[in-house]
Write a structure and sequence with these properties.
Strand 5 and strand 6 form a beta hairpin. Helix 7 packs parallel to helix 8. The N terminus is likely disordered. The two termini are 24 Å apart. The radius of gyration is 25 Å and the shape is elongated. The protein is α/β, with parallel strands linked by helices and 505 residues long. The protein is built from 13 helices and 19 strands. It folds into two domains: 306 residues, Purple Acid Phosphatase, chain A, domain 2, CATH 3.60.21.50; 92 residues, Nucleic acid-binding proteins (OB fold (Dihydrolipoamide Acetyltransferase, E2P)). The strands form four sheets. Strands 3-13-14-15-17-16 form a six-stranded mixed β-sheet. Strands 12-11-10-9-18-19 form a six-stranded mixed β-sheet. Strands 4-5-6-8-7 form a five-stranded mixed barrel.
Length: 505
């Protein structure tokens, strides 16, 4: 029987959109919608809900690494990479060794390519300058110059020396490749040696193999992805985040979402958990909580409402910590103790690499987590990325980085720590998932067997974001079925103008 409802009492509830193509549903006032007000305020009125005061107590004997070991064992998380190197005073030699370690990796990788036979050190070419002999070398790009006639000259260097490599403008395939090159990336070059230069015939790049099937789990599970929540910001979308909590607690029934919620095993948070303080000029005007410690406490109050059966994996972003150099270590316990004190929260570095569902019959899935500090740099510096939309299409920037096998190959693309033992920003193996944030843009792509997920954000546009041209995707979350590898976009956010219209209805 059709209900006769007073239109003024009907509340438009824009709750979920699958791939942004499901129409809005009108929910009648007879249906209880817990998210209609702040769920936290509602729960405070409920005698059955109590905030665990132990979350907000610092433990002077807390050991971060032991805590992580216990939690990853409990939640079945295998940590493949987590940067945990103590800080030290750095010198010029550290930078030299850092780039040497990078060169070692790309040399070993590219030597395995069929076309890279008889690779020589650059210093070995001196006796061959007049021979017109075919040679193969591997090195890092130190210069890219275009001549007045439209030709290109690339300077490649290895540990032994450097050499100029000439590329004729008529070799259009090579010229197109050069347009995608950046300084300090590792490549191989084949050509003929003569007149103290190499006349380039072929580039060999470390790009992933083309034909790779999407790896799946045999059992059906879900992983949910978040980033750039910015707890403590004035423009934090509290109502939207409360709807997310509703969903995870099985309180949303449309489209079988309560059944999906039961199968959510993990939440991955790709940085910028809090708004932070002093990240950019006059940031205090955008923050409602002027203490990072209290901002993390607010984060803990929200995350503590998520079912404890769900493992929550977090990495830092540029708003989370005083150290911006990558890799960023785990969040400091002294400030984020309330999150560490949660039994289901696991802290890792930025970047980090984990395997989930390792006990699955298909062997589990690898997730590469990177907040995205270099994304804006390459979105602006690489011409074809600018033409595609720059930071508006972060999935394209991630594809670029996967091709380079490095998160930030160019010196200056991000702040970094020159580790003399290895280059921790090298992407040694292509993961099943690459998770990032930072741009506040939500996007998805499958690329050579890797599912790229750029998460949106949980703050409305601030004056600073508008000034920087950051037009965010707000209050949306990506959730992936690991059995099918199909993602869904869940929209928890009602835009301001729609909320105003609803109030007038």
């Amino acid at each position: 029987m059709e209900k006769n409802l007073d239109k003024k009492k009907i509340r438009v509830y824009e709750n979920f959109i699958y791939f942004l193509n499901i129409e809005l549903e009108i929910i009648s006032p007879e249906e209880k919608i817990i998210s209609e007000k702040s769920i936290f305020n509602e729960l405070k009125k409920d005698d059955t809900f109590q905030i665990n005061s132990e979350l907000f107590k610092k433990n002077p004997n807390f050991e971060i690494e032991n805590d992580l070991k216990e939690k990853i064992s409990k939640y079945g998380v295998e940590v493949l990479f987590d940067y945990n190197v103590a800080s030290k005073k750095l010198g010029v030699s550290d930078f030299t060794l850092y780039f040497n370690r990078r060169l070692d990796y790309f040399t070993n990788l590219l030597k395995s390519r069929i076309s890279m036979d008889n690779v020589m050190r650059i210093s070995q070419l001196r006796d061959l300058f007049s021979t017109n002999m075919e040679v193969s070398i591997i090195g890092l790009i130190s210069e890219i110059n275009k001549t007045q006639n439209g030709h290109f000259m690339i300077t490649l260097e290895d540990k032994s020396s450097q050499i100029k490599c000439f590329v004729n403008k008529d070799k259009t395939d090579l010229i197109k490749q050069i347009e995608n090159f950046c300084l300090d990336e590792g490549i191989g070059i084949k050509g003929k040696i003569g007149n103290n230069i190499i006349w380039t015939d072929e580039f060999v790049i470390p790009s992933p193999p083309n034909s790779v099937e999407l790896k799946r789990t045999e059992d059906e599970h879900y992983v949910l992805f978040l980033s750039d929540i910015h707890f403590g910001a004035k423009v934090f979308v509290e109502e939207a985040f409360n709807k997310l909590i509703d969903f995870l607690n099985g309180r949303i029934f449309e489209n079988g979402l309560d059944k999906i919620a039961e199968k959510v095993k993990y939440i991955i948070v790709a940085g910028d958990i809090i708004e932070g303080i002093g990240v950019y000029p006059n940031q205090g005007l955008d923050a409602k909580i002027l203490s990072t410690e209290l901002q993390y406490n607010e984060a803990a109050m929200y995350f503590s409402q998520i079912p404890k059966r769900i493992g929550i994996i977090m990495i830092p972003g540029n708003h989370d910590t005083d150290r911006l150099s990558e890799p960023q270590p785990k969040l400091p316990y002294e400030k984020a103790y309330s999150l560490y004190n949660m039994k289901n929260v696991m802290m890792l570095s930025n970047p980090s690499l984990i395997k989930l569902f390792s006990n699955d019959a298909n062997g589990g899935l690898d997730f590469y987590l990177y907040h995205g500090g270099s994304l804006f740099y390459y979105a602006d510096k690489i011409q074809y990325l600018r033409e595609k939309g720059g930071a508006k299409v972060p999935e394209e920037v991630v594809k670029f980085l996967l091709e380079k096998r490095h998160l930030a190959p160019s010196h200056g693309s991000t702040l970094y720590i020159p580790d003399s033992q290895n280059d921790p920003l090298v992407i040694k193996n292509i993961p099943d998932f690459f998770i990032t944030g930072h741009t506040h843009k939500l996007s998805l792509a499958n690329y050579k067997g890797c599912t790229i997920i750029s998460c949106g954000c949980w703050v409305e546009m601030s004056d600073y974001q508008e000034k920087m041209g950051m037009y965010p995707d707000i209050g949306k979350s990506v959730i992936v079925n690991t059995k099918t590898r199909k993602p869904k976009i869940l929209n928890f956010y009602i835009e301001k103008y729609k909320r105003e219209e609803n109030k007038k209805a």
